[in-house]
Queue: 2 jobs
Job 1
Amino acid sequence: MRSAEKLIESEHRLGAHNYKPLDVVLNRGEGVWLWDVDGNRYLDCLSAYSAVNQGHCHPKILDAMVTQAKQLTLTSRAFRNDQLALLYEDLAKLTGSHKILPMNSGAEAVESAVKAVRKWGYEVRGVPEDKAEIIVCSDNFHGRTLGIVGFSTDPTARQGFGPFAPGFKVVPFGDYDAFAAAVTDNTVAFLIEPIQGEAGVVIPPEDFFPRVRALCSERNITLILDEIQTGLGRTGKLLAEEHEGIEADVTLVGKALSGGFYPVSAVLSNSEVLGVLKPGEHGSTFGGNPLACAVARAALKALVEEGMIENAARQGDYFQERLKAIRANGVRNVRGRGLMLAVELHPEAGGARRYCEALKNRGLLAKDTHDHTIRIAPPLVITKDQVDWAADQFEAVLTGLDT
Ligand SMILES: *Cc1c(COP(=O)(O)O)cnc(C)c1O
């Protein structure tokens, strides 16, 4: 077996440097645990950005994947396969959506929704050609394609990649008045994350989404919730919109839709918006393939039948309570919903990255975001004892920061 050093050296030499990973080389996962090539065990508090909500290498998802891989993997949508309808049925039953578009990555789901809602704007709403406007939020994260980074407000994500597509307006996240002021007769959609994940787990004011929902209904604006990270149990509900007491017109899911086995995403909608797409107008070679569908069905089943969503609510509340009880001068704020948690540090604390390094040395993997925030998102199968252990590690590292 190659040593961690050799693998890291090779990666550094041959790979594009578009990531700066912690220097831990992993080769095995099970449930909440990960192991590195030297046999050290870590509690995963990132879950591949919530793609592994069901826990690493979930045996039932693995079974479904292996069984389907032996049977049929890809036909393209030029022909039908016997798994796609079943995934549609499961998603419709679970989320109440009327029309579904299967894609692969999260960014593709976002792009697909943008395309569909523009077309809907022209064909159904009667917006003049090429005038459709979509409102998005500052500090958004919706993926990495050109279309998407074009309406990012993060200079690192944008700079040097222009020119970008027009048709997007940015308003501050959680600011209803700014949103209302940005609406025009050409506004076809509001694209927003229920909780901004990459921005550091930012939760909007309580009355924000109900008011947004009301205005969208009044002005016939499609409310698109990007639940690629917040969805599928992460916040203690199937979808984070349930915390707000609203329903989106279009919901984007991805990440945990496959339990981390394979990229699977979907646009879930009322029939009007996706109904505008006619044969040939949009597509994907891999989207809706039988392997993806079988894996996604097993991933959804595990999530629901094994009580992971309820567990996320329960352990999330407990984890947050434990984190809030930590008395450390460096901690500015602890927040979150379900198992989507964040510890924000004071700028004087010297940056979140070094605490993630210290946590790693104690056997816990977490990710810093935006310099001063540690994001915590373990698989939803975490137990109370494991939360206690994790909270102890945070306490040790965060109080160590005072000295
Ligand atoms: C991860 C993420 C995406 C992009 O998903 P990819 O599969 O990486 O393309 C989009 N939106 C949100 C909110 C995400 O967290």
Note: The chain has a mean pLDDT of 97.
Job 2
Amino acid sequence: MRYSYATHLECSVGHDRYDIRKLQGLSAAGKPLLARYDLEALRREVRREEIARRPPNLWRWHELLPLEDPARIVSLGEVETPLIALSHSPRPAGFRPPMVKDEARLPTGSFKARGLAVAVSMAKALGARRLAIPTNGNAGAAMAAYAARAGLEAFCFCPDDTPEINLSEIALQGAAVWRVNGLINDCARLVESGKAKFGWFDMSTLKEPYRIEGKKTMGLELAAQTDWQLPDVVFYPTGGGTGLIGMWKAWAELTALGWISPPLPRLVAVQATGCAPIVRAFESGARAATAWENARTIAAGIRVPAALGDFLILEALRESGGFALAVSDSAIEAARQQVGLRDGLLLSPEGAATYAAYLEAAAGGRLRASDHVVLFNCASGLKYPMPAVTARMDVRAPFAAGISLPSPGS
Ligand SMILES: *Cc1c(COP(=O)(O)O)cnc(C)c1O
């Protein structure tokens, strides 16, 4: 029995093979590399019950992760995240309450910790010293944290409208961080152009092969949590798409292992109307997306005008029988308020977008009432701006203005 059953890396288009024991970026064709595993041996040697008996954290899946030596793990306690029913938030009559997979519980308050825990562990094990990343905030915060823990240098490039708290948490965790007067793709170009000069290893989404392996654990975890009976539909707030591609990869691996069986969940990519390149490409039947101009949305994590893995996202949506849906910032804000007020769960704007999309899909007849639905809340709501509180009370004349609760609205 091996700790990891990873065997090699493979180009996501050409299928040519690469050495998994060396630090790798993109394939020769400039496409993402994907980790491959000896699933036949794993199927013979390990049973799913054994994994289910281990402590519930990310590393219980070590056979399906690339790290060969447990001593090389860089960890901040990557817990299994709970599924929480939205029992009280509005839903169409007769529908089951959707479940939220609450990724806010992870270190650094977002699911970026999954990807960066694995990617930083691998980068360190394979000899990288200086990590650089273009980031809308959460990825930089996670990279800074894991790099600090690993004793590596971290350099983060953020669009200047990145949520303030992200910039501060990155800086407090020892990374160098800059506000860049451009979008995430401009930040990516800066990393690209500084690489050779400053000796950076590029940790951009899908430009190194292991963030996706870490994010894949969302799909693995969901399977174990639902007693290997996956939900019918999964709504995922899609930026670079690592999580969506990762979950689809996870379920393909679990299917090959015989640990789950079809039908697999339908995947729904949720974007904001102010930045919806995947939705546009999906609806036009295209195999790849074109860059979105003037991207704008309060959901910073999904403000990604062009994704390197666009073709993999579109493939996963179509193979799963899913679809792509864009929601407005006002629908996102209303959703965030509803779920906070009714169910006591403070979602990130990206997480709120999945609930808004769920309501829209249900109203549009794209869901069955009997569907088991999972929504992803990818970060803590506490990391984002919140409405100011203006109500004041005078201790000398209390209750003068009356006492009332916020109205639930509709
Ligand atoms: C990064 C991020 C996303 C998008 O995730 P991808 O897997 O890169 O598409 C969504 N929500 C939040 C809060 C994020 O930080």
Note: The first strand starts at residue 6 and ends at 11.
